[in-house]
Amino acid sequence: MEFYQFLNKIYGIVSWESVLSTSGLFNVYRFMRDIKRQRQPEWLTAEIESGNFTQAIINGAREKKDRICTMTIDTFMNFLAREANSLVLKLKATGGLILTGELPTLMEEFLNRDQFYKNFIVSDKMEAVLKDIPIYLVKDKKSILNGAALYAAFSEN
């Protein structure tokens, strides 16, 4: 709720785009820094100023360089798992969950950790269903372009 209120003050309308995107990762980070009062280390300040925020946060969490990096990635991955859970159940996607894009690819090792899966299968009544859902990660950086080309090639219009 605290994070929602934080985003609501910034955007007015809060959507998953303001959470589960590159800018969303930065929003989670700012929340940790500004609301949860986690210290921003000097090395991270320099990385942010040079435009390498996403990679810096991921590397910082990977190397356990600073608590703010770990907390940011853990929180982001929790939100990703919970929204993936919600979408799978809403869409009855029993064939699997497909994650694609830059962030999931960069965060592959965090996706492979038990915590992501544990957060994904949390459900009051549907845990048994969620446990049977395979999770796939598309690593092809051109998958969006290929999908658009395929659609254009076979589109009726």
Automatic annotation (TrEMBL):
The chain crosses the membrane at residues 6-29. The keyword Kinase applies. Coiled coil: none annotated. One of its GO terms (biological process) is glycolytic process. One of its GO terms (molecular function) is glucokinase activity. Its EC number is 2.7.1.2. Keywords: Kinase, Membrane, Transferase, Transmembrane, Transmembrane helix. InterPro entries: ATPase_NBD, Glucokinase. It is an enzyme of class 2 (transferase). SUPFAM superfamilies: Actin-like ATPase domain. PANTHER family: GLUCOKINASE. This is Glucokinase. It comes from bioreactor metagenome. The lineage of its organism: unclassified sequences, metagenomes, ecological metagenomes.
